[in-house]
Specification:
The structure is a single chain. Helix content is 31%, strand content 27%. With 84 residues, it is of the alpha+beta class. The chain has one domain. Strands 1-2-3 form a 3-stranded antiparallel sheet, with no helix packed on it. A hairpin with an 8-residue loop joins strand 2 and strand 3. The radius of gyration is 25 Å and the shape is elongated. It starts with a strand and ends with a helix. Bound molecules: zinc ion (ZN). Zinc ion binds at residues 20, 22, 25, 27.
Length: 84
């Protein structure tokens, strides 16, 4: 199958075309591809583009937040020695 990009339907969706590699076959089709969830936020935000965060992204953020809170509660060795 040979794929050829068509045109953007909007900033997050593109229509593409495909055709069979066999000249004798003649099959061709049209499809579309869409970005649906954000994995990492842009450092150059486009106000026209707003995607929900992916589940992986939400889990990663939750893990970072949890780790920061946990690390904030941990005592370092100097604190432990002072308490002894
Ligand atoms: Zn074919």
């Amino acid at each position: 199958m040979l794929f050829r990009y068509g045109r953007y339907l909007h900033p997050l969706m593109i229509r593409f075309y495909a055709r069979c590699e066999s000249e004798a076959c003649g099959f061709s089709a049209v499809g579309q591809s869409e970005l649906t969830h954000e994995l990492c936020p842009s450092q150059q935000q486009n106000p026209d583009v707003q995607l929900p965060k992916s589940q992986d992204s939400l889990r990663r953020e939750a893990a970072v937040t949890y780790r920061r809170q946990f690390e904030g509660r941990q005592l370092d060795m100097a604190d432990l020695l002072e308490q002894a």
